[in-house]
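Please check this chain.
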Amino acid sequence: MPLLPLPPSPLMPLLLVALAAGCVQQPAACRGTAARDLQTLDGLIADSRATLDRGYAIGPAGRSGNASVNVCLGSGSDNVGISFCTGDGGYRRSGPVAVDLDAERARLKQMEAQRVAAAARAQEEAIACASAQGAVGTAGR
């Protein structure tokens, strides 16, 4: 059975590029747990440095507001009501919180020491992943 020629279309080159891209093996992400741990540790170190620079931490300073209204709607005539509550409800706001600066300095020093080991683990993990990706890429040839 002979193939019928397709009419020329301006979308044909785009279709061919899309088909070719689907055939190319996409590299796997080489971002493992060590890299995520390092990123988390970097964030904690930055927070600790900011706390030391300020001289205090930023944290929950208490609750504001002490009243709320709840409206409950149900189906038909069941579970319909309204309630007004006072007490410990409300929203939490952030503000300055006292911190032991000597303890914070010690914590920062410990995290910076941990960061050296975490960075080495992340680099080893990335190299191992890249090597594995290279082996997978050459195995299909």
Remarks:
- The CA atoms of residues 73 and 80 lie 5 Å apart.
- Confidence is low (pLDDT under 50) at residues 15-28.
- The chain has two domains: 30-56+99-141, 59-97.
